[in-house]
Amino acid sequence: MELVQVKPLRAGRMRPLRHLADLDQDGRRAAVAELGLPGYRADQLSRHYFGRLADSPADMTDLPASLRQTLTKALLPELLTATRELTCDQGMTRKTLWRAADGSLVESVLMRYPNRVTLCVSSQAGCGMACPFCATGQAGLTRNLSAGEIITQIFKGAQALAAGQLSGGQGRVSNIVFMGMGEPLANYGPVLTAIRRLSDPVPSGFGISQRSITLSTVGLVPAIRKLAGEGLTARLAVSLHAPDDELRDELVPVNRRWRVAEVLDAAWDYAAASSRRVSIEYAMIRDVNDQSWRARALVSLLAGRPAHVNLIPLNPTPGSRWTASDRAVAAEFEETLSRGNIPVTVRDTRGREIDGACGQLAAAHNPAPNPRP
């Protein structure tokens, strides 16, 4: 369903406008003071946005009518506009293509399960990691998203749930996964700020437990080690996809800089600091990484470690030579891990019929790769 068509600008050439979510409470009060207003107006605005999911001046009835437009224009600019929206799974999954003010395209996916609602968000427009089986990696990197643009994806999803726009009636976002477009740790500052805004209590943020947040990475070792010192309890997910350096060099090119052993060592340090198991993400790719010997190698790597493996049936991109493993092969791979006492789950894939893998909807909407800045 087409929602809005926005005239594209040159992607990546405009700095995103300052948003409430980019600032902590002191920063918001300072921004309000620049308008000649008392600091408590920032607290009121924050409570509307994070507590009541309100961004329309008309809904802010405790603010003087003369101030509402001034405050929202200064601190709640429209950062993302819905360009296309698709639903599937009997209305339980909704994927949105967003266009930023500079024309950059990003995606988010809202998924309702029996006991939770998960929102998958993007941290970059495009991605520079160049993983060949990933639609976003094929498109290249346009730019980093601001914390405000990341939080806007979550805000819009929370608004939709509160309004009962997903099948199942009204609800709330319970889990956030940074597994959309981009490499989160390549956009370290804004992503960390977004996590703080997610977990800070209202009115500073949404008040979502960090234990309900998962941060994915292909393995930027210095950033993982830095993250271990941030005092977070969010879960780290490592997109491993191969237990051996030879294959991972091809599937995850950044492996040529940081080898499998280095990535996992950093991940175990984060696990120790956060007291959380590490999720090992493993896309099952037919005749590429699904051999039984690779399953045994993965067992050897993870034995005795605080890890849980997510096996992901690959959602192939159009025209790609990469496709999902045969079910029997994937089942044998899973069984090998289980016999090796490695906790393992086959991820429930959502949205295949709506270009559900990250980057597919953007690529379909704009076939030409995003221009690099």
SSE layout and pairing:
Layout: H1 25-34, H2 40-51, H3 65-75, E1 80-88, E2 93-100, E3 105-113, E4 116-120, E5 124-126, H4 135-139, E6 141-144, H5 147-162, E7 175-178, H6 188-199, E8 213-217, H7 221-227, E9 235-239, H8 245-251, H9 260-274, E10 278-284, H10 292-302, E11 307-313, H11 327-339, E12 344-346, H12 360-365
Parallel strand pairs: 4-7, 7-8, 8-9, 9-10, 10-11, 11-12
Antiparallel strand pairs: 1-2, 2-3, 3-4, 5-6
Give structural attributes.
373 residues; alpha/beta; DNA polymerase, domain 1; TIM Barrel; 2 domains; two-stranded antiparallel ribbon; 12 helices; 34% helix; elongated; disordered C terminus
Description:
This protein has 12 helices and 12 strands. It has 373 residues and is α/β, with parallel strands linked by helices. It has 2 domains: 56 residues, DNA polymerase, domain 1; 286 residues, Aldolase class I (TIM Barrel), CATH 3.20.20.70. The strands form 2 sheets. Strands 1-2-3-4-7-8-9-10-11-12 form a 10-stranded mixed beta sheet. The protein has a two-stranded antiparallel ribbon with strand order 5-6. A hairpin with a 4-residue loop joins strand 1 and strand 2. It is elongated. The protein starts with 24 loop residues before the first helix and ends in an 8-residue tail after the last helix.
Give me the count of strands: 12
What would you call the structural class?
A: alpha/beta
The N- and C-terminal alpha carbons lie at a distance of: 30 Å
List the secondary-structure elements in sequence, H or E. Answer: HHHEEEEEHEHEHEHEHHEHEHEH
Gross morphology: elongated
- Given as residue ranges, the uncertain stretches (5+ residues, pLDDT < 50) are 1-12, 367-373
* CATH architectural name of the largest domain: Alpha-Beta Barrel
Reading off the top of the CATH hierarchy, the class of the largest domain is best stated as Alpha Beta
Return the CATH topology of the largest domain: TIM Barrel
Q: Can you summarize the main beta sheet?
A: 10 strands, mixed
List the strand order in the largest sheet.
1-2-3-4-7-8-9-10-11-12
**Fourth-tier CATH superfamily name of the largest domain:** Aldolase class I
Helical content (DSSP H or I, runs of 4+): 25-40%
In round numbers, the mean pLDDT is 91
Gyration radius, rounded: 21 Å
Number of domains: 2
DSSP helix count? 12
